[in-house]
Amino acid sequence: MILSHQEFDKTEYLHYLRSKICNTMKVSISPTVSDACPELQAGIIKATVVNTPTGDELWNELQSEVARISATYTTDTLSKRAAIAATRKAYKTFGKDPARYRVSSEALCRRAIRGLDLYRINTLVDLINVVSMRSGYSIGGFDADRIEGDMTLGVGSADDVFHGIGRGLLNIEGMPVYRDNVGGVGTPTSDEERTKITMETTHLLITINAYGSEMPLDECVEWTVDLLRKYAQATDVESYII
Length: 242
Description:
The protein has helices at residues 5-24, 31-36, 56-72, 82-93, 104-113, 123-135, 217-232; strands at residues 27-29, 41-48, 138-143, 151-155, 163-164, 168-169, 176-179, 184-186, 203-210, 235-241. By secondary structure, it is of the alpha+beta class. It has a single domain (26-241), classed as Phenylalanyl-trna Synthetase, Chain B, domain 3 (Phenylalanyl-tRNA Synthetase, Chain B, domain 3), CATH 3.50.40.10. Strand 7 (176-179) and strand 8 form a beta hairpin. The longest helix has 20 residues, at 5-24.
């Protein structure tokens, strides 16, 4: 389809406007969470990206992490891994059972240890999975165009309605949860269907949630940005730690 000059200008303007909204979006941590988890830091990455089917080079990086995890940990020792143990501790602090509602990084690593195949999803999701397995941190990945307003990390309540990706309705009471003006968008167990990454995602928001230290967070953020530039043609990159 050939766009008219007027239609082209409108399309370019909308892309520009969405990019500006992504860059001005604020992410914060509520006192409820920061007081209970004083070691918590979050790495924030915003970028304009191109999502694609996962290529072989990235997939091989993921498989290398699978091999490393399965050679390093067992299902018994994995929960003692520093980053995972710290996130599990946060769950317990807020009254959530981390054995029943597993942290996403732990769930990924458990699949590797048990010899279960990981799903080949798309470049952005699989890239985040590589970082999560290597660092041990739970990582939220969101389509920034689907986020309404700013985001704040708080604690889930019984009144929250949250549809986990591929999980259906998820009970997030007692979980750390990022919320925008509409509702919950991400927990350490699952992100929400409403703001999930798709093949149409062009503006990406990543939160790297370090409840306790393992990989230095600044190195983790820098490495993630490098991967985004390598595999997802990332531009307009902004990154910082809160």
